[in-house]
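Milestone 3.1: sequence recovery, worked example.
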């Protein structure tokens, strides 16, 4: 059926209205950015293996060793449609990059690369994401014991993603993604979630949970 000019004009008005808003970045709320993430510098520190005591088991003496702990402080802000200040984000993904002082035989800088999905992130409050590198892995990379974070960690970086889109990042070198340089080589599978370490029962609600 052919539309009359007046009918066509009436039909086109909503479309032109939407197009005008789109041109100025003013799409309806469903298309607006609904999640904002802010984060601080990634903290790297050496922490010793915690020692616990239990009854009815034999005592085994051992010397605590030093782990590398990564601590990323961040906060999430959600649109009212997602709960606002009282809402929670289902999950975020964090990519970690940590470079070490020990180089490979061909002179390349070694760095650990790891990715974790954290779940149920509360909005509008300080959150922490934790990750660890074991003493055994540090010895393999550095070829010695006695890890010291201040001298053995040469650089760090992180990227936070929501629904596959990077929404926040940071590096020790400013804006340079040093892990993309051909002069570095990645060590994958070496980063551990807190739940897979002796620290799993510590610190209560300090850090967010790793998604299973």
């Amino acid at each position: 059926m052919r539309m009359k000019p007046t009918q066509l004009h009436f039909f086109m008005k909503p479309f032109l209205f939407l197009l005008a808003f789109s041109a100025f970045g003013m799409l309806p709320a469903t298309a607006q950015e609904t999640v904002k993430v802010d984060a601080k510098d990634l903290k790297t520190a050496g922490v010793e293996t915690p020692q616990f005591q239990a009854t009815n088991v034999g005592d085994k003496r051992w010397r605590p060793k030093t782990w590398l702990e990564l601590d990323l402080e961040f906060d999430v802000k959600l649109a009212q449609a997602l709960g606002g200040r009282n809402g929670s984000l289902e999950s975020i993904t964090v990519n970690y990059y940590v470079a070490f002082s020990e180089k490979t035989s061909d002179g390349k800088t070694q760095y650990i690369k790891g990715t974790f999905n954290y779940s149920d992130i509360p909005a509008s409050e300080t959150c922490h994401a934790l990750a660890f590198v074991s003493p055994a892995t540090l010895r393999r990379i550095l070829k010695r014991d006695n890890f010291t974070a201040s001298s053995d960690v040469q650089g760090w970086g992180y990227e936070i993603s929501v629904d596959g889109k990077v929404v926040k990042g940071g590096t020790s070198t400013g804006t340079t993604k040093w892990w993309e340089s051909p002069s570095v080589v990645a060590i994958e599978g070496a980063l551990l979630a807190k739940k897979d370490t002796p620290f799993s029962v510590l610190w209560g609600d300090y850090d967010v949970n790793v998604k299973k």
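DSSP finds three helices and ten strands in the chain. The two ends are 56 Å apart (CA to CA).
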